[in-house]
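User: I'm putting together a teaching handout on how multi-component assemblies are represented. Below are the sequence lines for each component of a complex, exactly as they appear in our records. Could you produce the 3D structure of the whole assembly as structure tokens, so the students can see both representations side by side? Please keep the chain order the same as the input.
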Amino acid sequence: MEQQQDKIIVEQVLRGDHQAFARLIRSTEALVATIIYKMIRSPADRKDIAQDVFIKVYNGLGTFRFQAKLSTWIGQITYNTCLKYLKKQKLVLWNEDAVGAGAYNDPVAPGSASDLAEARELIEFLEKAVEKLPPVQQLLVTLYHRQELSYAEIMTITGLPEGTIKSFLYRARHQLKTSLLVNYNPADL
Amino acid sequence: MKIVHLSEEQLQAYAEDPAAIAATMRLHADSCPNCQDAAKAYRIAFAGLQQFKTDKFDFDLADLVLASLPAPKPELTWSALGIYFGTAAAILLVCLPVAYGVRLISGLHSLSLILMLAATFMIAVHQAILSLRNYRRKIARLEIY
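Assistant: Of course. Below is the structure of the complete assembly, with chains in the same order as your input.
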């Protein structure tokens, strides 16, 4: 069903229908933004990269063979474009030294999640804890838990082996759990 | 007897889906306060992650991208097709008599042919000069020339 929709939109764009391409951009923008925000720190560069991604998509659409979902393919282009940018800036997405850095070393005021305001506070706490993770773990955790992508889709996007993805996810989740238990009483959660 | 708690990996799997771990470990996890606390923290972390605000660009990406793309090719309409066929027919109508005329004049003496071509050329130049004068007069009337 989704592949059929992908085929229709690809055909429309290849015929020169710019409005169809605008629809494609709007439907995949959230995934592209997630990847770019997790990998790129500079707001100005995010804009250029986002534009560059969709120009690459437009120029490469004729070579798309529907082996994956169109959105996954666009995610892959986004990830590779960000990596290329980081390489150009001599930055790295992750290194083993940074992977162990703990979010739980920086305690936040303890609280209880018993009502809505505290639940909001808990989410903000988790957002801060995620921001302290290495970028690759931030990205994988967001793709898996927030975007609800499968391991196969994350593999296609990042080109990382399944074992590596699971290992990074394990470390990230463990860090978040430890951070929660250090800052909150388990009975109050 | 030593109590064996769930490993972190098993706890993560149990928090995501209790059926994902072996029945004996599940039995332990269901009744162990330590494992329950850890699993609860994982469940809260997973639920919290799902509620994170979505990253959004603060500009209209579609507009930005579309502005940098080449203009779309015009679609082939029936009226455009009519123009193409009409032009082709007009070219044929002109070319056929010319081809036929060339055959006719091929039998003429070369001097007669030169005279004919010179007269045709003079008429064409005269017509061109008349058209140019006419055009200049029209433009002058618009007072922009």
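A couple of points students might notice: The interface with chain B takes residues 16-18, 21-22, 25-26, 29-30, 32-34, 36-38, 46-47, 50-51, 54-55, 58, 113, 122-123, 126-127, 130, 141-142, 145-146, 148, 170, 173-174, 176-177, 180-181, 186, 189 of chain A (CB under 8 Å). Residues 36 and 47 of chain A are 9 Å apart (CA to CA).
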